[in-house]
Design goal:
By secondary structure, the chain is α+β, with helices and mostly antiparallel strands. The chain is about 15% helix and about 35% strand.
Length: about 280
């Protein structure tokens, strides 16, 4: 059997489970459906006492044994294709996995179903954020507009519901986007042991209205979305450097024009043409 890769739903390294029931087929184009447990490649679902006269609804890995769905408002539902899967008989049974070498082992039904039910009741995989801050490097948080090319720090606290308790989230794939219509900057947030995610970056040299946006959407976790709007202004006319190195050629051309005008004016004012000899004798 194939478990979903989201350990927050099925737990870490789930053991083989026993299943006796019906399979399900899900809409592959529906992004809200989660394939919690798939059947093996040789499985099919059909009435055991009837001949197979038509192609089954689904076969192989397209057959879902346990399916879940997380709605857009983060509400969750789980459907088990077998009620025996949650029975004491299967909880206390032994099983041998297809890939196992040697003897049998205890079935993983108890741990698997417990983890799935805890996820459905949002005792696991629930995320929340708080204490969103942003500021210039070395300064206190402020709502004032940033200036282009400023060095900025951003931080957010993210917590995860784990076994019914809020704990610091330690995900390594949370990203921050600095957006003005399209993202200008996208960077990974680095967490510490207390669940504080931080990142620093340089504000783009394009002014306008931007957003600090955290949009985290992963299988098994609730959708985390945070956005904070800020303004980015250009340099004031008093904030530019007195002399810009890239403008040195223009400075040189301006001073050369001034020098040329001075030389021309001096020659024009003090130059006298020589008088011809014929005019001197007259």
């Amino acid at each position: 059997d194939s478990f979903t890769s989201a350990s927050v739903i099925v737990g870490e390294s789930p053991k083989p489970v026993l299943f006796q029931g019906v399979g399900m087929a899900a809409d592959l184009d529906n992004p809200l459906v989660i394939d919690i447990l798939r059947a093996s490649s040789t499985a099919y679902s059909h009435a055991a006492n009837q001949d197979i006269l038509e192609y089954p609804l689904a076969i192989g890995s397209n057959l879902l044994l346990v399916a879940g769905m997380q709605a857009r408002n983060n509400a969750r539902i789980v459907i088990f294709g077998s009620h025996l899967m949650l029975s004491d008989k299967f909880y206390n049974a032994d099983v041998k996995a297809q890939s196992a070498v040697g003897g049998v082992q205890a079935a993983g039904n108890r741990d698997f179903t417990s983890n799935v039910i805890d996820w459905a009741l949002r005792r696991n995989g629930d995320l929340r954020f708080s204490n969103v801050k942003h500021n210039k490097v070395g300064e206190a948080p402020s709502d004032a507009a940033y200036r282009i090319t400023d060095e900025v720090e951003y931080s957010i606290v993210i917590e995860e519901m784990r076994n019914g308790n809020w704990e610091a989230f330690q995900g390594s794939d949370v990203q921050l986007e600095f957006v003005r219509i399209d993202p200008f900057i996208r960077a990974y947030l680095k967490p510490n042991s207390e669940g504080v995610f931080k990142v620093g970056f340089k504000v783009p040299d394009v002014y306008g209205v931007y957003q600090f946006k955290v949009d985290y959407d992963r299988i098994g976790f609730t959708h985390l979305y945070s956005t904070t709007q800020v303004s980015v202004r250009p340099f004031h006319h008093t904030e530019y450097e007195r002399f810009i190195p890239s403008a040195y050629p223009y400075y040189a051309s301006a001073f050369s024009m001034l020098g040329g005008l001075f030389v021309f004016s001096f020659v024009f004012l003090y130059h006298r043409d020589a008088v011809p000899e014929s005019k001197k004798t007259e």
